[in-house]
Amino acid sequence: MSSKAVLIVCDGMGDRPVRGKTPLQIAETQNMDSISKEGINGLMDPISPGIVPGSDTSHLSLLGYDPHQYYRGRGPFEALGAGMELERGDVAFRANFATVDDNMNIIDRRAGRFGHEELAKVLNMNIEGVDILVRHTVEHRCALVFRGKGLSDKISDVDPHEEGKIRKCIPLDNSEEAKRTAEIMNKYIGMCHDILRDHPLNEGRKLPANIILPRGAGMYKDVERRFRFRSACIAGAALYKGVAKFVGMDVLDVEGTTGRFDTNLISKKRAALKALEKYDFVFIHVKGTDNVSHDGDLEKKIEMISRIDRELMDGFVDLDSYVIITADHSTPVSIRRHSSDPVPIAIKGEGVRIDDVSSFDELSAVRGGLGRIRGIDLMPIIADFMGYYEMYGV
Amino acid sequence: MSSKAVLIVCDGMGDRPVRGKTPLQIAETQNMDSISKEGINGLMDPISPGIVPGSDTSHLSLLGYDPHQYYRGRGPFEALGAGMELERGDVAFRANFATVDDNMNIIDRRAGRFGHEELAKVLNMNIEGVDILVRHTVEHRCALVFRGKGLSDKISDVDPHEEGKIRKCIPLDNSEEAKRTAEIMNKYIGMCHDILRDHPLNEGRKLPANIILPRGAGMYKDVERRFRFRSACIAGAALYKGVAKFVGMDVLDVEGTTGRFDTNLISKKRAALKALEKYDFVFIHVKGTDNVSHDGDLEKKIEMISRIDRELMDGFVDLDSYVIITADHSTPVSIRRHSSDPVPIAIKGEGVRIDDVSSFDELSAVRGGLGRIRGIDLMPIIADFMGYYEMYGV
């Protein structure tokens, strides 16, 4: 007999106390608290204590794949999240459309947040046997893939990550592959500028999208699926869709998911409840909590958490499946960046050891029945509850 | 923005209950309790649960360097702690001056606790291309270094660790290097005896320092620094200075620090507060708690802990930096040896999640917001609080 499960990950929801209380302690969270009360609680280090997780490494870990083994840079996740299909050996990047002057000085790293499918399309080409594929996603963002033999992801970013001159791509190790990939990249960037400079869509623009700035090179390697059940992902932002696809989940298109504060949580909830008819495991990602944390906006964070509780979590408190609520890392509003502070986790469902914790927050959690666990432990725990376990030994 | 931190490690302070209470529970610890109350608490396994830490491996771990990767025997730490400079490939030892009779039977492993700089100096020599360097430290103790090509630390101790005949040094693996190093050691020990036997400083002594007994061979390998902030160490005993130097910390000379029960804690406190003007991170080591534990002296342990609280900790309770108090391992007075019982840890400072724990002791700690962590996790946690973090992924 096996059961189903819903994993809800609120990005950057963990925090530190501000005037004595964390946002989770302040927000209206009766539904999350009900999961805590009827479930088992703990603290979770997405990677390990003291290590500050990126969103990519953290999600790999939370979905059951050790980033130390599987993480090869962000590029592949962005490309997969943009809907591109990848092949083993592809080197993928995330990239921005940007505006440069004639001396390759960056005027705007985001080309006034402008980008276009047509601008991406004209950048597809083949250089020295390497197929180069570009896909526009939202605003100024796109994903870029190099496909061919003898490539390497050990190359530097073209994107300088700040205004200034664009960077020449250089090899980061002594291999022939890195040298060649960097050379092709530099050739390619020059050609992009030549093509985009005179493109009709840029005509008359104050901040024309006249170059792309790739970063986060990563070589794609397909992953052997670890879990045998059918899994689906509901997320707004490309990265999370990409990680989910990378580990073999189906990525569902859900209307109104934006990966921002304004995402439609009710739409996500409905899609998840519907997906549970077909899938055994549904992963819901909510990005808004992280965005407002990076802005240092305590009020908005409290509001977002309260809204998640009211508009999303209410659909799962009485669900006859396992319900897991957690965050992928803390993003304290006081420091406006990811931190290593562990996140609370609560698991509700048939047979879990119900502990005394009745509030879903960073301080109550550690007194729960799970103690302090790591992100990589989460999926095996869920899989075992669901009945899809693997025994080690006999 | 970054902050500073003080880490106070009381050696062997952790214990087991004696008639229902641990020394930490009995002692007067209002200042430690105040750190607990205003901070976050937890239990820490210096290495991992059930593993009994040595002071060397434990400190490596607590300072952020995995001993499984960096530990190569105690010798290098003793040599560094004695103020010697080491080069990659050096094999270092700790050694005692000792008294032997003409048949090389040991009369006193510590030569009546006598040793002398001049006696060390005459033992410097070169044998078969290997430079041999000796440095006297305190009483009968010295550090010894073999420097040259083709050496190995896979050799046995000359010190038998008890009265009896001195041991012949033998290679511990099949390598040519180990064979050669052992041969040179045996030659060297014979020559030491010849030189020391007739040395004027030994004249008329009942227990002449007429030999040295090396032990704890370890090959030195320089370590890449893990943390970017400026760090200083305040310690009395050579080992801890050595570990600190090994990992790239500045070792401060502080008057009155003895590495014993009688150390001047007020002097340590003042030195640490002053060091914080120049350094970002100050590590204070107190040895006395361990010494009295090895003696099985409960009263003295309680007295030492109370004194640490009164004379040292009072300087840090209101400090505007992170303050961390812990131990490097437990040394229960009931068993007079190190044990694997985890130690309490409390961290106070800006933004920490203040938990309900208000007493700094082994039983209260585990209910705190840190749960149970490992020694190797400590420095990344502190570094993240300080603002010197590295993100894994993006």
Q: Termini distance of chain A? A: 20 Å
Q: Largest interface: which pair?
A: A-B, 35 and 28 residues
Strand content of chain A: 15-25%
Main sheet: strand order of chain A: 12-11-13-1-14-15-2-16
The strand count of chain A comes to: 16
Q: What structural class should be given to the helix and strand makeup of chain A?
A: alpha/beta
Low-confidence spans of chain A: none
The outline of chain A comes out as: globular
Order of helices and strands of chain A: EHHEEHHHEEHEEEEHEEHEHEHHEEEH
> From the alpha-carbon coordinates, what is the Rg of chain A to the nearest angstrom?
22 Å
- How many strands, which pairing sense, and closed or not: the largest β-sheet of chain A? 8 strands, mixed
Oligomeric state of shown chains: homodimer
Helix content of chain A: 25-40%
Q: What is the average per-residue confidence, as pLDDT of chain A, rounded to a whole number? A: 96
Please tally the helical runs of chain A, counting DSSP H or I stretches of 4 or more residues.
12
What would your notes on this structure say?
Two copies of one chain form a homodimer. Chain A has twelve helices and 16 strands. By secondary structure, chain A is α/β, with parallel strands linked by helices. In chain A, strands 12-11-13-1-14-15-2-16 form an eight-stranded mixed sheet, with helices on both faces. In chain A, strands 4, 5, 6, 7, 8, 9 and 10 form a seven-stranded antiparallel sheet that branches. β3 of chain A pairs parallel with β16 of chain B, so a sheet runs across the interface.
